[in-house]
């Protein structure tokens, strides 16, 4: 660490051209000698007799340095420092004190002074003290800027990493859609219905965002099912159906190493559970099933029924809607079914 003496011995740094000093002292003599000497150095100087006057001047003028006495009537130097460091953190603060006042000087440092100077002082020491306080203030500002920049850099990098994850998962979805001709566009339509339901339910933006991701990715695990099964025109055998039933778990396994998708794993894992507990893979029932999964179950089934599949043509909307209503309370959460019917009408009205 540099000692106080070694700082004093440093060659004098030129004053910055915008340095403005406010000297605060109830003794007119001190104020005027500081003003005269600093003005000779090309520094612009303001004078105040007490803390109140100083605060008013700091408010009106752009002072880079506050040089204040401690013992003053009305508002003393310690109270002034406390207010100035709160209201004008960009102003470097220095305390002038007599030897007998050392304890008060320590209190001043605790209340935001950068440095103190003992009265009587030589101007050489005053110059160096002011220069050091200006440097310290500039360093503090740089440090704050650095911290702000660092936070935004970390956020940028996190966003970049997340977008790379999303891109690689999007390629997987493309690969799945290329394999399974009939599910092309299915994820987008399920997302559209899920968003309409969750918005109607008044879910939080964060919750809706999780549901959006889960809806896009809910069938990702079908990448692990062979094309022959996915595109089979007839009924699936028990073994083939068993293969298809693995897709919620396979999808969860694909996404589980990626921190960005942690929140949505339960929603994907349980999107084929039934409200009566007869679904898969967990056979869980009612509100044990994550809300996102209960929403996706309705959206997914409705879209599957109204799209052409390998084994049957698309069903008319009225038939699909009647089937959703028939399964309310058994396959689906009845509350979500009623929200869905309302939200679906809205989507159709808006085209
Ligand atoms: Fe599925």
Brief digest:
The chain has 351 residues and is an alpha/beta fold.
CATH class placement of the largest domain: Mainly Alpha
Give helix % range.
55-70%
Q: Give the strand order, joined by hyphens, for the main sheet.
A: 2-1-3-4-5
> What low-confidence regions span 5 or more consecutive residues with pLDDT below 50?
1-13
Cα-atom radius of gyration: 36 Å
Ligand kinds? fe (ii) ion
The CATH architecture designation of the largest domain is Orthogonal Bundle
- Number of domains as seen in the coordinates: 2
Structural class: alpha/beta
Strand content: 5-15%
Compute the number of helices: 15
CATH topology of the largest domain: Hypothetical protein af1432
Name the CATH superfamily classification of the largest domain: Hypothetical protein af1432
Tally of DSSP β-strands: 5
**Principal-axes shape call:** rod-shaped
Structure description:
It contains 15 helices and 5 strands. The chain is of the alpha/beta class and about 350 residues long. The longest helix has about 55 residues. Helix 7 crosses helix 15. Strands 2-1-3-4-5 form a 5-stranded parallel β-sheet, sandwiched between helices. Helix 2 links the parallel strand 1 and strand 2. The chain has 2 domains: about 140 residues, Rossmann fold (3-Layer(aba) Sandwich), CATH 3.40.50.2300; about 170 residues, Hypothetical protein af1432. It is about 60% helix and about 10% strand. Bound molecules: fe (ii) ion (FE2). The site of fe (ii) ion has 6 residues, from loops.
């Amino acid at each position: 660490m540099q000692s106080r003496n070694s700082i004093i011995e440093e060659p004098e740094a030129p004053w910055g051209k915008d340095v403005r000093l406010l000297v605060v002292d109830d003794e007119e003599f001190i104020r005027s000698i500081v003003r005269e000497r600093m003005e000779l150095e090309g520094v612009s100087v303001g004078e105040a007799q007490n803390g109140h006057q100083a605060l008013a001047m700091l408010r009106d003028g752009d002072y880079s340095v506050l040089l204040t006495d401690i013992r003053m009537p009305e508002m003393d130097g310690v109270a002034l420092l406390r207010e100035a460091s709160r209201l004008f953190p960009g102003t470097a603060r220095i305390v002038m004190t007599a030897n007998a006042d050392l304890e008060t000087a320590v209190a001043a440092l605790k209340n935001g002074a950068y440095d103190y100077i003992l009265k009587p002082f030589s101007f050489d020491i005053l110059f160096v003290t002011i220069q050091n306080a200006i440097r310290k203030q500039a360093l503090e500002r740089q440090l704050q800027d650095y911290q702000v920049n660092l936070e935004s850099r970390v956020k940028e990098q996190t966003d970049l990493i997340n977008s790379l994850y999303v891109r690689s998962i999007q390629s997987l979805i493309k690969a799945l859609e290329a394999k399974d001709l009939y599910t092309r566009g299915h994820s987008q339509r399920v997302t559209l219905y899920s968003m309409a339901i969750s918005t109607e339910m008044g879910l939080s933006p964060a919750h809706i965002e999780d549901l959006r991701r889960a809806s896009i990715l809910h069938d990702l695990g079908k990448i692990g099912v062979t094309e022959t099964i996915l595109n089979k025109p007839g009924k699936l055998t028990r073994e083939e159906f068993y293969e298809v039933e693995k897709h919620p778990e396979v999808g969860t396994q694909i996404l589980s190493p990626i921190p960005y998708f942690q929140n949505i794993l339960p929603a994907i894992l349980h999107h084929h559970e039934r409200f009566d507990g007869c679904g898969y893979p967990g056979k869980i029932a009612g509100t044990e099933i994550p809300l996102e999964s209960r929403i996706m179950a309705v959206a997914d089934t409705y879209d599957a029924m109204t799209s052409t599949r390998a084994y049957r043509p698309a069903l008319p909307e009225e038939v699909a809607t009647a089937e959703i209503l028939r399964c309310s309370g058994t396959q689906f959460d009845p509350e979500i079914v009623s929200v869905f019917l309302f939200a679906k009408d809205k989507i159709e009205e808006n085209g």
